[in-house]
Amino acid sequence: MEQTNPLPLSFVLPNPKDLSGLSLGFIDGNFEDLRDLLLRSSSLASNLNHDCSDLNDRLIHLRTDLTKHAVSWISTSLSAKVSLEDLRFNLESLLCLPTDSVGKQTNWELQKLVEELCRIQNQRKYFVTALKLESLVGDLEDSVFHPIRSHKGSTLQDLAVKHKRFSHAIKTMNEIELMLGDVTRHHSQWRHLVESVDSRADKSLSVIRPEVIAEHRAFLSSLGWPPKLATSKVEHGEVATIPNPLLLMQGDQKESYSQSFLLLCGLQQLNTKKEKRKKLHMPKEDSNVGLWATDELVKPVASRMEYHFMQWAEQPEFIFELVYKVTRDFADGVDDFLQPLIDRAMLVSCSAKEAWVSAMVQMLSGFLEKKVFPKLIDTFKEKHMKSEAISSWFHLVDQMVTFDKRMQSFVNSDTCLSYEGSSTAFSQDISVMGLFCKKPEWLKTWGKIELKDAYRKTKEDIKNERAWLVDSERTRLGNESTSRSAKYVLSTREDYKAPIVADSFLNRTWRLIDHGLSLPAILPRIQFIRATATKFLWCIFKFMLLEFKKIDLSYYSLFEDTLIQACGPINAARYLESKLREWSDDLVFVEMWAAESSAKVDRKPEASCQGCFFGEELKGLVELETNWLMEIITVFLQQFDSLCSDNFNINTVLWEENVITGSSNLTVSQGVAEALDNLRRHLCVLQLNMNPKDFLDLWRNLAEGIDHYVYRKFCSGEPVLRRKRFDRFEVDAEALLTVLQPYCVRPAAFFPRVREILRLLRMHEEEKARLRGALSRNGGNNCLKLFGISNLSAQLVEQFCRCY
Fold first, then answer.
1. Which stretch of DSSP H or E encloses residue 239?
2. Which of 143, 250, 408, 713 has the fewest CB atoms within 10 Å, i.e. the most exposed one?
3. Is 208:169 a contact under the CB 8 Å cutoff?
């Protein structure tokens, strides 16, 4: 057999240029030439191994002695602590005893001694704490930077050894964190000690965390995660279910994953404790962080799904459908498998299902934030592409809102603890609409797009010829079939006799509000609604005001068509007011009003009225309605005055011309009859076409105005009065009271001054004599109330009694 030649030394020995100076010096000191190296290398290697073994034994012995001495010193220190505590207590007791001026020096010395003892005790505490922390940090650094090498075994055995090492390091870091938390709370002056330990512990954490995550990812990859997205199999119009590799694990493999999962949870808990301690004196922030272990499941799935996302950039509905399907298919398996591990890790208020859904939603939000919205914003800035960008924006937002609602329904499918519409019912981490909460500039752009679109569509709606018309036939039938009291229980547009365009106003306003309510955070929600729905309401008010100004309301050309046309904006305003009050009473708007009041968002606290979310808008609506009603009442009063300006005046000659001698044959004056006939006809038109509440306000205020008008006319007469003029006034006044007979049971109650004038005119001589006597004795208005007169002045009554 042929003997193989050994390799040349040039192929065995390293190049001297690659060795450090210390290594070359060591070799030159132990070997004279190449032959000496070949003969003595094995013995030198044996000696070096023996020396290393001795040094390791000595290091272990020193570490054992150090631990024994530390324990002994701590024991002695504890006994000294007890003695010092007793001594301090005794000295403080001595200081409390009453002393004279001779003992003041002694007390001062004792006080100094107590202060010194306290200083020594604090130093002892510091040294004990520093020693414990040094021991723990040293143990941590040994386990992290100098791990014990294990013999090669199976993959799962090697993984178990690594998990044991990781677990020991995390346990040590938790003990360190516990001590640092105690020091931070009770000894804030030891900040240099805390900073020093933090620095060393963070270095260990920066090493151990990537190792734990890398091992976890490698183990997931060995399981076949992520699974293939079975999007090519379609059954009955739906994508086939995706298999879950987590449910296929058994035995040691399952236990290894459990240990890896618990390690990640432990690291996350440790990180949370450190952040809370460091932010102890800082303002609290709402930061709802997901579960790291669940995030590690989602990241490889995201990398696989991103390919499909890029293919469907112009069809976002496919993206949302794929994310929803993957989330739904894996949710039950994740919940069944991971929830026991979460409970085992003692994570409080943590749900595996919610953590999985949150991670998937955040993955989708990240893609939209980086890949979709920036391109959409750039397209929107180009004028020739703006209309296409707006259409794509609306489509994308609609898909996001629908996706959030589906996710919310899915998460809440097994619980009934939340209610729809609540500001706290849906977490920002389980909502892709939360992207607008993180990007205020995008929220502002979205608001502008929504407002301009609603304004444009509303301008098209009001161009319709029948937009402001009131359905008189419908309201007439409703009045015939409804009782007097039920007429004021209103709910629908037909009940308020509002025009068709009022529904368009409300539907577009609610659409803007509904989009705002889809935002998970309450302050961005308020900001969006104020920037869209509230501004749109003021645009609506402007449209109604312009429509009312088109109407020619004047007493010399007051026709039925004019009154019917005026009822359109008035009824629309009343209908909008009722809906805004209804919305303001909803719990969602009450929460937003409370949050806005406390945060003072976009408006001063005193700017809004009536203590509700739409207070300022309601104030504007009420002011519009009042002004419009007052315009109609003013026209009615002007017409009434023009027709009967020569009536109701005792001193007027024309009023006396047609008086017949027998008072029983007197008829209503011609001017009064014509004025009352016009008034009755106009009120009938308004009753048919105006909503009952505004009509009630109108005729009551109109009655008050006519009552005041007649009273002023009566007061303008001369003191010398004649009986037949009284009879004329009585006949005309009685006719005036009958005008309101169809609308109330006691019309005289709405003409208090006219009623009391008639009472004066109908007094018997005996009652007049008593009235004159009471006025001469007492005077003033107090005695008039005894005669049932409270709205006429004492001067007028006294003049009447004196002259007649």
1. strand 238-239
2. 250
3. yes
Q: What is the pLDDT of residue 657?
A: 45
Cβ atoms of residues 201 and 137 within 8 Å: yes
Helix axes 560-584, 615-643, angle to 10 degrees: 160
Tokens of 175: 């003990």
Residues 6+ apart with CB under 8 A from 694: 570, 571, 574, 625, 629
Identity of the residue numbered 152:
K
- Contact call for residues 386 and 380 (beta carbons, < 8 A): yes
CB count in 10 Å sphere of residue 75: 10
For residue 461, give the amino acid letter: D
Contact 738, 747 (CB under 8 A): yes
What DSSP element (H or E) covers 254?
A: helix 251-278
Using a 10 angstrom Cβ sphere, with 0-12 exposed, 13-18 middle and 19 or more buried, the burial of residue 125 is: middle
What pLDDT was estimated at residue 700?
94
Task: Identify the segments of the chain with pLDDT beneath 70.
Answer: 1-14, 17-23, 25, 75-80, 83-84, 86-88, 90-103, 105, 147-155, 230-242, 280-289, 414-427, 471-489, 600-610, 646-666, 717-725, 779-782, 802-804
| CA distances in angstroms from 1 to 4, 8, listed in the order given | 9, 21
State the alpha helices, DSSP H only, in 550-614.
Answer: 560-584, 587-599
User: What is this structure's pTM?
Assistant: 0.76
Distance CA 165, CA 176 (A): 17
Reference 546, options 527, 572, 580; nearest CA is: 572
| 527 and 601 Cβ atoms separated by less than 8 Å | yes
The DSSP secondary structure of 512-558, one letter per residue, reads HHHHHHTSSSHHHHHHHHIIIIIHHHHHHHHHHHHHHHTS---GGG-
Q: CB-based contacts of 291: which residues, under 8 Å, 6+ apart? A: 265, 268, 342, 347, 350, 352, 355, 359
Q: How far apart are CA 789 and CA 759, in angstroms?
A: 9
Q: How far apart are CA 355 and CA 155, in angstroms?
A: 30
Q: How far apart are CA 776 and CA 636, in angstroms?
A: 41
Q: What is the pLDDT of residue 691?
A: 93
Q: How much is the pLDDT for 112?
A: 77
User: Which one, of 575, 543, 568, lies nearest residue 690 by Cα?
Assistant: 568
CA angle (110, 112, 118) in 5-degree steps: 105
Upstream peptide bond of 520 is cis (omega within 30 degrees of 0): no
End-to-end alpha carbon distance in the chain: 163
Q: Backbone dihedral region of 662: left (phi > 0), alpha (psi from -120 to 50 degrees) or beta? A: beta
Whole-number pLDDT of residue 267: 93
What CA–CA distance (Å, rounded) separates 615 from 593? 10
Contact yes or no for 333/272 (Cβ under 8 A): no
d(CA 505, CA 662): 62
Rg, the chain, Cα only: 46
Is-contact 345 292, C-beta < 8 A?
A: no
Rounded CA separation 513/491 (Å): 20
**pLDDT for the residue 549:** 92
DSSP per residue, 442-511: HHHHHHHHHHHHHHHHHHHHTTSTTTT---HHHHHHHHHHS-TTGGG---STTTTT--HHHHHHHHHHHH
Per-residue confidence (pLDDT) for residue 662, from 0 to 100: 37
Select from 783, 780, 775, 778 the least CA-distant residue to 802: 775
